[in-house]
Amino acid sequence: MQKNDWEVMKPYLSIVPFGEDQQLLAPPGICNFIAFISSGSMRSFHTDDKLIETNLLLRSENEFITDYESFISQQPAKLSIQSLTSGEAILLDHQGLMSLYETSFYWNKFGRIISENIFLNSKRRTEQLLFQSPKERYINLIENHPDFFQKYPLKHIASYLGITPQSLSRIRKQLSTQ
Description:
Blueprint: H1 3-9, E1 13-18, E2 23-25, E3 33-39, E4 41-47, E5 53-60, E6 63-65, H2 68-73, E7 80-83, E8 87-93, H3 94-103, H4 105-131, H5 134-144, H6 148-151, H7 154-161, H8 165-176
Antiparallel strand pairs: 1-8, 2-7, 3-6, 3-8, 4-5, 4-7
Helix pairs in contact: 3-4
């Protein structure tokens, strides 16, 4: 990255403080931002007809969060984005990013790389939910993201794993006695 690449991006960024349990996006709003979390933590989740929430992503410091489908298509969001703790995020707005794609080779390449990473993460997550048992998903989370258990409440981890808090408790007890 050259200094000029950073300078052309600055006008499209805004620093946004957020409080605990603050809603940053709710359906049917359109997601007009990609958030880089500089401090604190957030989640993206879906709420079904029975008002049951299922976490899609749990994110914290130095990670990105958005409803990428809504962001790209500029159609109503299906996901909510909510803070879990207070903190601060740097938001890049949709219109600004589209402008950067048109005018900067660097940011166009950056966008492609981000899109590829989002695709790979989504594919891995989908495969885990389809092909692994809850116990395997839990073990995988411990092995690959042990920090989750310090950052997020167990009820959000259970939802992220696609299980109930009671099932998570049983799996944890089962593994601790082995």
